[in-house]
């Protein structure tokens, strides 16, 4: 009995030991399985994690590398669509970041006068987006450059900081290019068969997003010829009557060329400058009407100089604009085509609030058109500064630089001749 009892105790001890060994093996297998699963998720193409199996466990093999790639593509799964949109948004944000980084330019500080070598856009930022164009700087016009980079220049325009492509700025003023035009002999019978007259070859205003901002695409007009002949004014009948003439000649659409000639003490006409200008969006007409967006043709004088800035030294009476100043264009008003100060003459007016026309009225000259103030024949016809739009509602616009020069020289005897083309010069 004692032997049997001892044998049973031995067997029981062996059984307990075996049970304890089985439990340890189970725990070890669980841990190993977890480790293998983790290893397999990192290396889905590897089967070494499962040396005792031909293939990975089913629950792991269902997550393939192909599934991971396709998870970014649009599917019927709402969560996948959200992920897709998120990735698109991230891509757009990355483009914006790259754009911002691209526009963060380190400028070399400077202070120098630079000239436009071609018609070029003045921009609010260092990009060629269409919505950041502020104005058009025309060939030969100057600005103060306060910052330089090989791609962009920081300039001062209208007392504010803007940007222009550095490729179109030069420290040297470009030579004026002029196109030879064959004027019919019928215009000036006393001359030879053909009289060569000239107009500036800077008429082409580069539109938003045009090749102006890309010098590789800019090219000169190969048909243009250079000439110093700019004396057509001396052939005009009115040349003997005055000593200063501003001639505005239409070039089609809303473009024109503006000439300023002065007669010297020897009676010889000299061209002071020739510059591109803008006219009414509907061109030049001999039948001007209120609101037709046309510039009136004819020969006129000037009555008044005015502007948003202080008097730069005008010959004519100069009036600086205030917040109370209006020019009446209401055909039913007794003050039609006149300047009204609302403090002096209170009332409701359909009119131009002059102070709101910046930069157009930085400097301006009132053209003595419709001096009888006949209702409906047109009002507020000025020679003023560019508005940056490439057209006006009937006025004539040139750059501030040349407008200021005119303010300082134009007097009551100065005449402005406006014609739709060279052919019409023979009328004067």
UniProtKB/TrEMBL annotation:
Question: Which residues are in the SH3b domain?
Answer: 109-173
Q: Where is the signal peptide?
A: 1-22
Q: Which InterPro entries match?
A: LD_TPept_cat_dom, SH3-like_bac-type, Transpep_catalytic_dom, Tyr_Pase_AS
- For this UniProt record, give its keywords in alphabetical order, as a comma-separated list: Cell shape, Cell wall biogenesis/degradation, Peptidoglycan synthesis, Signal, Transferase
* Compositionally biased residues, Polar residues: 215-227
One GO MF term: transferase activity
Q: Name one Pfam family in it.
A: YkuD
The name this protein goes by in its record: L,D-transpeptidase family protein
Q: Which organism is it from?
A: Mobilitalea sibirica
């Amino acid at each position: 009995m004692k032997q049997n009892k001892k044998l049973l105790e031995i067997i029981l001890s062996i059984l307990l030991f075996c049970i304890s060994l089985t439990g340890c093996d189970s725990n070890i297998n669980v841990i190993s399985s977890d480790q293998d699963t983790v290893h397999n998720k990192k290396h889905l193409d590897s089967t070494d994690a499962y040396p005792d199996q031909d293939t990975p466990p089913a629950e792991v093999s269902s997550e393939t590398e192909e599934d991971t790639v396709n998870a970014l593509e649009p599917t019927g799964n709402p969560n996948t669509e959200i992920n897709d949109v998120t990735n698109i948004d991230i891509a757009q944000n990355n483009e914006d970041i790259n754009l911002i980084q691209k526009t963060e330019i380190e400028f070399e500080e400077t202070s120098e006068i630079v000239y436009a070598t071609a018609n070029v856009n003045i921009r609010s930022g260092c990009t060629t987006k269409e919505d950041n164009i502020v104005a058009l700087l025309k060939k030969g016009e100057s600005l103060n450059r306060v910052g330089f980079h090989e791609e962009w220049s920081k300039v001062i325009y209208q007392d504010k900081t803007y940007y222009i492509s550095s490729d179109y700025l030069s420290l040297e003023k470009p030579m004026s290019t002029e196109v030879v035009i064959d004027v019919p002999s019928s215009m000036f019978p006393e001359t030879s068969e053909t009289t060569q007259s000239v107009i500036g070859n800077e008429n082409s205003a580069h539109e938003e997003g045009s090749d102006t901002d890309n010098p590789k695409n800019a090219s000169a007009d190969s048909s243009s010829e250079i000439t110093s002949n700019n004396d057509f004014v001396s052939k005009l009948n009115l040349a003997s009557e005055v000593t200063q003439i501003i001639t505005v000649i239409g070039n089609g659409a809303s473009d024109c060329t503006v000439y300023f000639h002065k007669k010297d003490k020897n009676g010889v006409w000299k061209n002071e400058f020739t510059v591109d200008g803008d006219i009414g969006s509907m061109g030049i007409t001999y039948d001007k009407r209120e609101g037709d967006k046309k510039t009136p043709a004819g020969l006129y004088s000037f009555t008044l100089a005015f502007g948003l800035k202080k008097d730069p030294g005008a010959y004519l009476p100069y009036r600086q604009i205030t917040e109370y100043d209006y020019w009446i264009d209401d055909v039913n008003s007794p003050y039609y085509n006149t300047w009204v100060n609302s403090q002096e003459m209170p009332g409701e007016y359909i009119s131009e609030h002059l102070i709101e026309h910046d930069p157009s009225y930085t400097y301006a000259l009132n053209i003595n058109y419709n001096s009888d103030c006949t209702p409906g024949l047109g009002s507020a016809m000025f020679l003023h500064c560019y508005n940056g739009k490439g057209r006006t509602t009937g006025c004539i616009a040139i750059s501030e630089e040349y407008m200021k020069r005119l303010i300082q020289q134009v007097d009551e005897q100065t005449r402005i001749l406006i014609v739709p083309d060279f052919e019409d010069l023979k009328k004067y």
